[in-house]
Each structure stands twice: as C-alpha cells, then as structure tokens.
Inverse folding.
C-alpha cells in the first residue's frame, strides 16, 4: 500500500527486535560461512543449502517467459541471536533461523514479486511464475547466463559471530549493566539488549550478475531509567557495526552504559522548554538523522520518478546554503549502513548528493534509476527476501566544514543546543519534518545552560538546509533503524556540529 | 503431518531434549498485494510462508528460538538451540507458562470468501479508488493506490495441555494523492482495513477523504505562539492513546517506568474519559480468541470516568505482580517473543456531535495531523508537531501547518472538556473527537 511513512528512531525495544528479525533465506557456501558450522555440542549452526547456478538461470528464464526486461533472484539466510538483560536478570534469549528467496520481474514501470521460504527448484520456479504475472509480452529480453564475480569488501571480521560462546555475550552485557548501576544511585533500572546476526546473500539477475557474500551485524543498546527530582528519564545509548565480536575490543560496553546513565541523570533536572522560532545548534553525531529525514528521504529516487518528491526537478539547482554538502556512502568500513554491494548487487560507493548547496544526485535503485535515467548509486535495499528492493540510505551525513564547534556555540546568542535526538519523520512530498529531542539545553549568551524537556523541532526540508550557516570540523556518526514503506533497515546518520537559524521549537511554555 | 499434531509432537520433543516445560507457536500466512499508479499496475506481490517459534523453560530459565525451515531436522535443531540457550538465561520463579484451557468466542475473524474474490476485482478496486481520488482538479499527482490482503493461521500448544488454534483474514485498500498549487505541495492518504471483504468502504468514500485531506491543506498559514484549545480528530487519537497504552503495560509499571505506575484506582483525568481494551469484539481488527500465549481474551476497563482501573499483563508479569493474566500477551508472529500489548484499545463515546465541538470553540486548533512520539510513557511529557485547521468563533478560518504543541499527560487528561459521539470501532486503536482546553501552541 502506498501510505508513505518514514521514521527513524525510538522504536520500543520489542518492536525493534521484531523489525530487526524479519527475515531470511538460503544459500550458499562462502568459505567464511563454513566456520559457522563448528559449534560445540549442538547440531551445526546451519544447513548449508546450495542452489546450483543452473537452477538460478532457469528461474530467471522462467521469470522472463511472459516478457519483461529484467529479473532477479535474491536468496538470504540469516542466523540471529538476541539476549535481554533487564532488572539484573537475563530475561530471555532468542535464537533465530530464517531463510528464503524472492524473485522479481520488471516490465516497464511494473514490478512483479513473489517469495518462498523453501529454496528448492520447484518453489523458485513457482515464485518466478507468480512474479511474471505483470510482464508485458510486447517487450522481452534474453537473459544473460550468470557468472560469479568478486567484489571488494568493506566489512572485515576478526572474531566471527558463529564462533563466539554465549558466555562472552553475557559478559559484555553484565559489564554494561554494572557500569550503569555504578554510575549514580539515581539509576533505578537498566536494560541491556544485545543482538547479532549473520546474513548470507546471493543475488543473480538477467544481466548476468551472480554475487554472494555474508554480512555480520551487531547491535548493542543500553537503556537506563533515572529517577529523582520528582520525575523520571529513560536514557539510551546504542552501538552498532557490521563487524565481528571484536567490536567490543574497540568500544567498551561500560562506555556505552555510562553515556546512557549520564543522560538519565542529567535530564532529571530538565525544565520546561520554551515554544517558538529559535536558532538551534546541533551537536555532532546522531543529530545527522535530521538531514537523513529532512533531506535524505526526499532525495530517494522512487518519489522523484513519481514526480511527487519535494526535490523533483531541482537537479543542478542551488537548494542549500554554500556551506552545506551532504553525502551518502555505503562503503565506509564496517559501519552500520555499510554493505559490499546493495541488495540488487550494485557496488557501494561514496555519493555526493548536495555539493556546496547544489543538488547533484538522487539515491537510486535499479528501477528508479532506469525511470529517471540516472546511474545506479547502490541504494537498492530490502529488509528481507520477503520485501522488494526500494531506494534507501546507507551512511548519510553532512560533510565536515571548517568551523570550530566551540565557536559555533559561543557565537549563538540565544537558542537551543540539541545534544541528541530521539528520531523523527518526514513527509517526502511536502518536505515537512519533525524531530523529538532526547537531550537539549538552552543557549544563553553563547553558553549551554539548563537542560529542557523533550522538545520537538519542526520545519520544511528546503528551508532548513538554506538556513544552515555554520558547519563544524568534527564529523561523527550514530547508528539507527530507518523505516520506509513497511521495511526497516540499518543505517548510520552523521554530521559535524552545525547551526540552523530559526527552527520552530515545540515547548510547553511561552518564551520569557 | 497436520499442524496441530506437529505442534503437539514438537512440545514433547522439547521436553525430551531437556526442557521442563515448552510452548510451540506455528504460524502460516498468505499475503497478496497490488499497487497501482496512474491507472496501471505498478507492483504485484504474492506469497505464502510459515514458521515455528519455540519457548522453553529449564530450571525456571527461559529461552526462545524460531525457524521458517519446516523440515524435521531443522525444527529439531532449532528447538535444541532454545533448550541450550536456557542454560544462559537467569532462573526466575515467575517464569511459568499459562494453563488456562478456555477460549473466548469471537465472531467474524475469518472471511472464507476473501480468497475467492478474483484478482481482477481487487485490481479494479485499486484502480477505481485512484481514479476517483484524482477527479478533483486540485489533485495533480497520484502517489499510488493499492489493495492488499492476508490470511493467517495460528497453532499454539504448550506442555500444560493447551492446544488451540484460530484463523484470521484482513483486507485493505487505499490511495495517496498530492494537491499542488504553484510551488506548494500537500498530500493526503486514506485507507480502509476490514476482516471481511464485503465490509470494505466504498472506493468513493476512501477517495474523497484522501483528496480532501490533500487539497484542504493548501494555502496554510502560521499562527502566533499562544495558548489555545485543541480539538483532536479521530485520525490523531493515538497522540494521546499510545502513551496511555504503554504506561499501563504491567511490566513497565513494575519497573517504575510508567507515569501511571502509582495511580491505580485514582483519578488521572476528566470524568469524560473512559478507555477500554477489548479482545472480544466481533470482526475487530485487534480481536483474538486467545492472546499470544494462549490465555483467553477479555473486554476490560482501563480508565473508567477518569479513574485508572487496570494494567495489562501477560502470564509471567501477572505472576510477578500478584495478579492474573489479563489476556494481553502480544505476539507479532512466530519470530516474536510474547510481550504485553492491547487488542482493540479505544476511548468510549461521549455524547456531543463533533460539529458542535467545533462550533463551541472560540479560538483553537482542530488537529488533523500529529507527528512525534506522543506522550512519553516514562514521565508523561508530551511534545509534537501539528497540522490542521484554525478555528475562530466556532468557524474554520484557514489551514495551519508546521505548528508545535506540548504539555504533560496529566494536564491534557484533566483538561479534556468535551468528547464527541463519532467513535468508529472499525479501527482497533481509536477515539471519538475530543477537545483539550488551553494547550501551549508554538508558531511564529
């Protein structure tokens, strides 16, 4: 259905686990995958299903039998573990196996799609037949036999997740729990959620592409409940990378926990936020979710192809201030939005979307790229084999500028300092976005002063990027979950410290 | 093997592998969706799938596993994983599986005719709703229309002797359109969900709503930052209900993470507010004969005339709280572990026609769109983005966009001064139109 909804952010924990777990399917034995088979004492971690190249060729031919100019098969196999430590107890552990394949046919602007949980020749051919329903017999192509190829990898693994004993997972969780409780007696409850998965993909298409890889993903979330001063605040910190268990050598679970705890305690002192238009300084990092929503979604080419996107017809035009450059780059090593190639097999790369204020590129998948005659940017992503690929962001950020963060703050006389955002949403047609602050402070005489309660920021995408007048040199990123059209996917959002002149801020009191 | 026998044999298998008690949740589903744009089919998707979720207890510690590979070998592997995972989790005296054998009789969850309606008719419906929505000249672009349906069958068996199943259907159609005027764009979308195909609204009704939502919001203005009354349309009911729903989650209450945690049997708002959770309503989109772990569903008062009457529990959290399960174990599917969630969660009807509410408002915001997370269930803080119509002296004067509004849950609940009589129970999470006095609105 076309009820367009986009969000990033504060999904309740259980919902997030549901979202993150949809999934998976079959395939293949990349050598690294064989390591997963060596689990002690219990049956092998997975049955390695192999579907021969000939079956994939047959499936693609079948999909194009009634016409159409493109067909692909996407096979997936996902093994996941999630563990919840809450109120000092390991309340649950979930082990999941998911596998399947999706077959797609593109004929003109039409897409036919079907999937199967069982990856057998019979089921694949059946899916191909269902997917071929939309094809227009007048146009057809002869599929090219698939040939496997090697691609560069942006994801390195030192400690494969399949080889990590559960006890090690519990240890990092315990360390985080203890660090949060030790931070301050005002911390009344700690929730540590751990998730990891290994997703194997095989993609084959009628243009002869045949690729396989395997992506590890880790997601670690600490939430802490602070109570005092007659109120409560739930703080949160997240850590996520496409990498092996060595993530916890680079990033300490204690640090993640302390950040969440600090937010919980500091925000207990928050006062009511004033309402109205004000200047906003956004701290570096996850604040980049603002441009992810406000600019990134409206730059996705599916709505551009439909001519309903807010940036339709603006290619080559000045859409933002000179200091504003925005990039989507799915090839930054091991980041949460990184993959080797997208879920249609297009190579990942750095795409400069807006360069010093000028709109240079939209984010495409195969279908929308064809529709607007633009290159494939590597943004065709899908939640699982049960979903069709659509244009999605990867690691999206405002590129660094030359201002010093401290100068940006000190030159802002009055306004709001946003230290972190929960998340937000955008209407990609009108460009109207909104955000909820997790942690924000008043700026008075160029200084951060009192914390204020969950303010809302609201505005229009084109206005906001025209009103950015200072960009810091301190680019940083944060991990998130992006939702669009009923599909969730893992992304990073980033930015240096920036200042936006005049945003409408929603607070519960009039400005004094 | 039939699914029922399969689930029973898998329950036994878990015990053989070392579990003290076990639960097996088998889900099969079939999905179909068609999307149309500019009169042509854009996508057609169709598939069926199934999967199994295992929950085991061993020495009072709990673990889960799931798989969509239904081969005997894969299922045995998967359940063994759960049993071994239970060696890592923490033993807890409250970890028990339910033993309520009954079921609530709920009429109208499954439409046997849905699958028999031809694909062509469903496509025609999607094309028609788009065509009708595009008829108004102010509507310039279509974002697409669509029809979708799904069928689900659940088998739930546990080692306490429960063995239950049910089938459901849902079908839905809708449209998304854009009105343009110069550089301005305004979008509107509407859809209709029902359990039975024949109960779907007419394409005309859905199309008109989508088109109106788009063109009526053209030429919006800003208003000054001020305090004014806010009238909540049923479309934005969740701005208030979602926070209340989360705050009455019994686990959140025990954790001290609910702004309603210490308010049971106390006044939390205007006596006009009655909130009900009903898992038993015939044809209800949130109705089920039993919840996500097999406990019969109920119809319950959550708030009665402004007094908080009850929290929602699943079996484990109820035991910990010294209560009985309220049949609110939620389960999104075989991959999801049972949490706590509502069924059909709604605010009861008042007696004022919505037009009267507008007429009696001297100055205020008639709220049609809200963005943000609604009420924060932890501390009751509320802040959101707002769009709708500005009201002066009981009349709509112009559309407004890009406003904010904020407050606290208790202030909002206490200042609700009139409730409409336009409750539509075909939605599962809803309220009639209501008004809240004197909220802080942020604008120019």
């Amino acid at each position: 259905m076309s009820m367009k909804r986009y969000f990033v952010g504060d999904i309740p924990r259980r919902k997030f686990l549901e979202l993150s777990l949809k999934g998976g399917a079959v395939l293949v034995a990349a050598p690294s995958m064989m390591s997963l088979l060596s689990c002690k004492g219990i049956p092998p971690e997975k049955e390695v299903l192999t579907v021969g190249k000939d079956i994939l060729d047959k499936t693609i031919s079948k999909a194009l039998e009634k016409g159409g100019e493109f067909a692909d098969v996407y096979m997936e196999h996902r093994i996941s573990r999630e563990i919840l430590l809450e109120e000092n107890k390991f309340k649950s552990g979930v082990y999941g196996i998911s596998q399947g394949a999706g077959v797609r046919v593109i004929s003109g602007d039409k897409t036919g799609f079907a999937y199967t949980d069982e990856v057998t020749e019979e089921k694949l051919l059946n899916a191909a037949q269902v997917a071929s329903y939309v094809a227009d017999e007048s146009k057809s192509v002869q599929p090219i036999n698939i040939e496997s190829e090697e691609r560069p990898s942006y994801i390195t693994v030192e400690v494969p997740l399949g080889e990590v004993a559960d006890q090690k997972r519990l240890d990092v969780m315990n360390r985080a729990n203890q660090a949060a409780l030790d931070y301050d007696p005002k911390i009344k409850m700690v929730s540590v959620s751990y998730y990891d998965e290994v997703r194997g993909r095989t993609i084959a298409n009628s243009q002869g592409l045949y690729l396989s890889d395997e992506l590890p993903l880790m997601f670690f979330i600490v939430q802490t409940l602070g109570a005092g001063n007659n109120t409560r605040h739930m703080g949160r910190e997240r850590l996520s990378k496409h990498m092996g268990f060595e993530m916890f050598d680079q990033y300490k679970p204690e640090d993640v926990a302390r950040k969440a705890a600090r937010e919980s305690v500091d925000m207990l002192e928050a006062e009511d936020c004033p309402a109205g238009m004000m200047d906003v300084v956004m701290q570096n990092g996850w604040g980049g979710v603002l441009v992810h929503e406000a600019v990134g979604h409206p730059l996705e080419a599916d709505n551009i192809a439909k001519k309903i996107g807010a940036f339709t017809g603006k290619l080559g035009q000045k859409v933002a201030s000179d200091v504003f450059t925005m990039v989507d780059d799915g090839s930054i090593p091991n980041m949460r939005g990184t993959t080797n190639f997208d879920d249609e097999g297009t190579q990942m790369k750095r795409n400069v979307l807006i360069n010093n204020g000028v709109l240079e590129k939209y984010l495409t998948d195969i279908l929308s790229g064809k529709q607007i005659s633009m290159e494939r940017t590597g943004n065709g992503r899908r939640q699982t084999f049960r979903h069709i690929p659509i244009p999605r962001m990867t690691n999206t950020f405002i590129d660094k500028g030359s201002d010093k963060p401290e100068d940006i703050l000190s030159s802002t006389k009055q306004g709001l300092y946003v230290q972190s955002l929960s998340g937000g949403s955008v209407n990609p047609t009108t460009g109207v976005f909104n955000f909820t602050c997790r942690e924000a402070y008043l700026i008075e005489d160029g200084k951060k002063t009192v914390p204020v309660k969950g303010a809302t920021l609201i505005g229009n995408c084109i206005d906001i990027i025209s009103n950015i007048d200072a960009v810091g040199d301190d680019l940083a990123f944060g991990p998130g979950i992006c939702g669009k059209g009923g599909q969730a996917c893992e992304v990073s959002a980033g930015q240096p410290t920036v200042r936006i002149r005049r945003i409408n801020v929603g607070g519960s009191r009039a400005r004094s | 093997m039939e699914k029922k026998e399969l689930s029973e044999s898998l329950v036994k298998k878990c015990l053989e592998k070392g579990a003290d008690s076990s639960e097996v949740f088998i889900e099969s589903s079939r999905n179909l969706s068609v999307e149309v744009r500019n009169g042509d089919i854009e996508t057609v998707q169709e598939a069926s799938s199934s999967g199994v979720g295992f929950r085991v207890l061993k020495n009072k510690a709990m673990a889960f596993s799931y798989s969509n590979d239904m081969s005997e070998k894969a299922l045995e592997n998967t359940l063994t994983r759960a049993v071994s995972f239970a060696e890592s989790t923490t033993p807890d005296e409250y970890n028990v599986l339910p033993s309520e054998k009954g079921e609530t009789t709920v009429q109208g969850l499954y439409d046997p005719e849905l699958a028999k309606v031809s694909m062509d008719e469903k496509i025609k419906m999607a094309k028609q709703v788009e065509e009708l929505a595009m008829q108004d000249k102010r509507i310039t672009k279509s974002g697409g229309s669509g029809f979708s349906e799904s069928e689900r069958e659940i088998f739930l068996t546990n080692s306490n002797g429960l063995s239950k199943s049910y089938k459901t259907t849902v079908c839905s159609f809708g449209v998304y359109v854009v009105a343009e005027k110069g550089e301005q764009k305004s979008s509107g979308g509407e859809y209709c969900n029902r359990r039975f195909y024949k109960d779907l609204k007419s394409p005309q009704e859905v199309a008109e709503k989508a088109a109106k939502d788009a063109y009526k919001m053209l030429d919006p203005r800003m208003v000054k930052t001020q305090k004014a009354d806010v009238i909540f349309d049923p479309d934005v009911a969740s701005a208030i209900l979602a926070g209340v729903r989360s705050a009455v989650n019994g686990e959140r209450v025990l954790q001290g993470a609910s702004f309603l945690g210490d308010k049971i049997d106390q006044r939390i708002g205007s006596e006009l507010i009655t909130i009900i959770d009903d898992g038993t309503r015939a044809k209800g989109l949130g109705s089920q004969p039993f919840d996500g772990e097999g406990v019969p569903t109920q119809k319950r008062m959550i708030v009665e005339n402004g007094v908080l009457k009850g929290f929602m529990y699943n079996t484990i959290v109820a035991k910990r709280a010294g209560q009985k399960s309220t049949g609110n174990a939620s389960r999104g599917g075989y991959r999801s572990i049972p949490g706590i969630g509502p069924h059909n969660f709604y605010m009861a009807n008042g007696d004022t026609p919505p037009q009267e509410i507008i007429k009696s408002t001297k100055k205020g915001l008639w709220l049609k769109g809200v963005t943000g997370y609604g009420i924060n269930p932890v501390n009751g803080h509320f802040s959101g983005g707002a769009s709708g119509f500005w009201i002066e002296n009981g009349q709509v004067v112009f559309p407004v966009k890009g406003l904010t509004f904020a407050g606290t849950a208790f202030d909002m609940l206490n200042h609700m001064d009139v409730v409409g009589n336009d409750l539509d129970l075909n939605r599962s999470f809803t309220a009639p139109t209501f008004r809240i006095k004197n909220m802080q609105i942020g604008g120019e």
Notes: The radius of gyration of chain A is 24 Å. The first strand of chain A starts at residue 6 and ends at 8. Confidence is low (pLDDT under 50) at residues 1-44 of chain A.
